[in-house]
Structures are given as structure tokens and as C-alpha cells.
Amino acid sequence: MTSRAYPGIDDLKVMLKLRREIDEKRREAASLGFFHRKRKAAMESEAALLEQKMKDTRRRILEMDYSYDHPVMLAARDMDAIPYGRLTDEGEAVEGPILWQLIDLFDTKALFLSRYALFTMPFHSFFEDVAYEDSSVREVLEDDCYAKWFDFDERDRIERVPVWTDEISDPMDPRARTQDHLFLLSEKEAVQKLWPGRLSCQGIDLLSEGASGADANVCWWLRTPGQSLAYRKFVTPNGQIDVDGVYVDMTRRGKGALASDVDFDVYVRPAMYVQLFDGYVRGAGNY
């Protein structure tokens, strides 16, 4: 595959790289104290130059001969708020589209992660050792969310991809991966593709109730096991990964939970691979 055949891909990759560099510059600048004013000013100046480069790259994409609602154009306008699909409640569409973040590109597939944590549910219905393949949250994502959130054309662009699990150490074991349209990130994917400062996530329900900033931050599931297969790791409201995890049937009033140490729900923040170009030949070799 060449970028000439799929214009805009290389520029989107540049924008992803620039976004990370800008985040790193600003995070470093924010960490500097009063006695490092010159260094802080230099970092802010460098971030501003990168911002301008980002704008120039975005402008180049938006001048391409794509329709207004083409996925490449949607991603270029705002990589952190790409509209795709609609949440449903009792089968009825909720006002406004689901917003997604572009967090990676592979060939002509874009890895989207929901910008907000979309709903709460236990990782699994029962407190027991459970593989991701057999989890309740996977069933809901595939059987309910994928079927109800997207129309036919949108579903046609969402790739069914191998999702590697962490329960099986042998990658050749057929149980080492599932095939899914919507899935949870692993710990490794979250660290590599989001980096510090982007792991925190707001709950869409809290935002609708008027919360803002850090007050709307929530915990969200990863598919990686914690201290055992009956636990799963999650991201905390301040953007840290809880390495021990919490029991898979966790709710605010979870089974066996003590009011003194359980004061939160864990949200679902799905990811998916979206094919950016019509007519791209799909096959095992493209993954």
C-alpha cells in the first residue's frame, strides 16, 4: 500500500505525532517552577510552533478532494472529537453523535477510542475467573452496542479485528485472541497510544448533569487481568492504571463490597478500527 493511493494518511500520521509532542512540551512546561521561567517560556514557544505546524497540516488535508463527511476529513478537523454513530436508550437514538478520538493509524484503518466513558457496567456478571472472550462486557459491546449504535454504512466501515487477550501466554493458542468490532483497550495499548495526560476520561452522564473538568473524571475498564482472572485493571480518574485491578463484578454496591472502600463505578470506554477508504481490500494480511 502506498500513501499516494490513499491521500491524507501520511498527514494524519504527522498530526498524531505532533499532538503527542505538543502534549509533552506543555506537560514539561507546566511542571517547571518559578526559577525555570526561561526554560518554561522556551517550552511554550516550541509548543506554539508545533501547533502552527499542526494547523498547516490540517489545512493541507482539508483542501483535498474529499466529501465534507469523509472519515479522513472528520479526523482532520478534530482528532479528539470525531462524530461516528449515536448512543441509544431503549432502542431510541440519544441526541447527538458519539464522539471518538483518533489514537493510531494502521495502513488505512484508524483506531478510534470513545472520547468519553459511555456507560457503567461490571466487567462480568459474576465474581469468578473469566477470560475476556467470555466476559459480559465483551458480549454487550458486540451484541448490543455494535448493532444499535451504528447504521448499516457505519457498521460496514468498522473492521472485525483480532483482539489479543492477556490470559493466554502462547500467541499461537487460538484462545489467545478474539475477533471483535468493539473492544476494550489492554493496559499495553492504553500506555502506548494514550500516554500520561490522556488517560483521564470524563463520564458522559456526569457531563450531562453539569459536572466539568476533573469533577467529571471516572474510572474505566481495561481488558488486562489484575491480581487474578477474577480482577481487571482499570484507569483511575487521575489517569493512573490500577495494577491490582478490581473484582470483575464491580459496581458501586458490588458483591461483597464495603462502603468504606468502594465508592465508584467503572465505566466502559470502547475502541474500534474504522476503515477510512471505500473499496479497500480487507483480508488477514491487512491486520
The run of helices and strands is HHHEEEEHHEEHHEEEEE
CA-based gyration radius: 20 Å
**Helical coverage, percent range:** 25-40%
Q: Report on the biggest sheet.
A: 5 strands, mixed
- The portion of residues forming beta strands comes to 15-25%
Characterise this structure.
By secondary structure, the chain is α+β, with helices and mostly antiparallel strands. The chain folds into two domains: 9-73; 80-286, no CATH class. It has seven helices and eleven strands. It has a five-stranded mixed sheet with strand order 4-10-7-8-9, with no helix packed on it. The chain has a four-stranded antiparallel sheet with strand order 1-2-3-11. Strands 5-6 form a two-stranded antiparallel sheet. A hairpin with a 2-residue loop joins β1 (82-89) and β2. The longest helix has 26 residues, at 37-62. The radius of gyration is 20 Å and the shape is globular.
Could you give a short description of this structure?
With 287 residues, this protein is an alpha+beta fold. It has seven helices and eleven strands.
Please specify the SSE layout and strand pairing.
Blueprint: H1 9-31, H2 37-62, H3 71-77, E1 82-89, E2 92-106, E3 109-114, E4 119-120, H4 136-149, H5 152-157, E5 161-164, E6 177-180, H6 187-194, H7 204-208, E7 219-225, E8 231-235, E9 241-247, E10 266-268, E11 271-275
Parallel strand pairs: 7-10
Antiparallel strand pairs: 1-2, 2-3, 3-11, 4-10, 5-6, 7-8, 8-9
Helix pairs in contact: 1-2, 2-3
